[in-house]
Amidohydrolase
Amino acid sequence: MKKSLRCALACFYIFCTLLSVAQPSDVLLGKIRQLAYQDSARLVSVYQDLHTHPELGFMEKRTAEIVSEELKQLGYQVFTGIGKTGVVGILKNGDGPTVMFRADMDALPVKETTGLSYASTATVKLADGNEVPTMHACGHDAHTTWLLGIAKLMKTLQQDWKGTLVLVAQPAEEPIMGARAMREDPAFIKNVPLPDYLLAMHTGPFPTGMVFNVPGTRMAGTDQLDVTFRGIGGHGSSPQSAKDPIIMASEAILQYQTIISRSNDPQTPAVLTVGSVQAGQDNNVIPAEALVKINFRWFKPETRKMLYDGVSRIDSGIAVSNGLPMGLYPIMKRKGYSFPVVNDSALVSKVNTTLQRVVKKGSLISSGIPAAMGSEDFHHLVLDNKKSVYDFIFIGTAPMDKVIAARKEGKQAPFSNHNGNYMVDLAGIPWGVQIGTDALLGVLKTK
């Protein structure tokens, strides 16, 4: 046999050996399922407690305490107060890759309408004094519960894998600020090892038991911004003596949509949403200011620039048309932002190689799903690293009976994210723990 051929065969043998080592055995996968479902009652109790006690972004003190205490009891090295309320748990377990798993903790200012026995009735007072209803309308309570379940399984199975596991309980995903707040925190930079891989999962209103893990661009980039229209206040009976910011805001809101309909290429996805308008207190008082809260969604940087330029141009034009001096021109404040989520193809393939062995045939979707206009910020935990390899997985958590009923009514899903009717199937709690643990062991070194 020629030397070159022997070398090629030897390399192939080594590759196959490494591949087999990287994949957990059937025995280990069976053990993961058994342990996840044995812990089901406790996990569901944790989930229901978190659901009943939602906390908004950067306010997740109670949730963070639950996470940190659980991780400490399991023997993780724990860092708290990262990015204000974030928690990091680290389990070093020998020579192998470093894998980070992130769960977000924050809820939304939405009134719950599910009618569940453990439904949230919580309210939160905001910095501006307004009190708003609060609920987990996007499944972050399930994500946090999954993280705690995974933490326990990975500790229990410590003899079956090698590497470093970094668990991140992140604040403030909804305002798209929490991941960067953690990544830029000196305590994170000093104490948290850079991961070879980053994984995260999200609930979805499709049947429990289904998993979507697709390579490439999966979610849009986003920007949150506030525009404050300033005018001159006055008596409602004397508009000629005032400069009405409510009128200016109203004109702007309508004109903003022409950016999408007339400035944007119709074949290039873009969304501009005004989610809040706040102005005045009384019927007969023209206020001095009106606040408009705006959200962008985009995939291309040039689209993002076009949206910002369009809003700025419209704001300035309205100021001119209302005869405002430069000192009263609208003020734009940029807040949270995130770049599009682009799943690493090799990592998706690696994870799916494991998941296809545990997910029912036909229920692991790895292609054919278009990118969503929704957004995420988890990948900002690693985007500034030299190595930025990540995978964002969607886990079905809708009860099948509700899915069937919705489809009979012609609906695609029984409920939707960010709506008061959003719910998570309790059977999806141990299921998510199983899938998350499977995914982690698919990229860590297993025995």
User: Anything to note?
Assistant: The two ends are 33 Å apart (CA to CA). The longest helix spans residues 301-321.
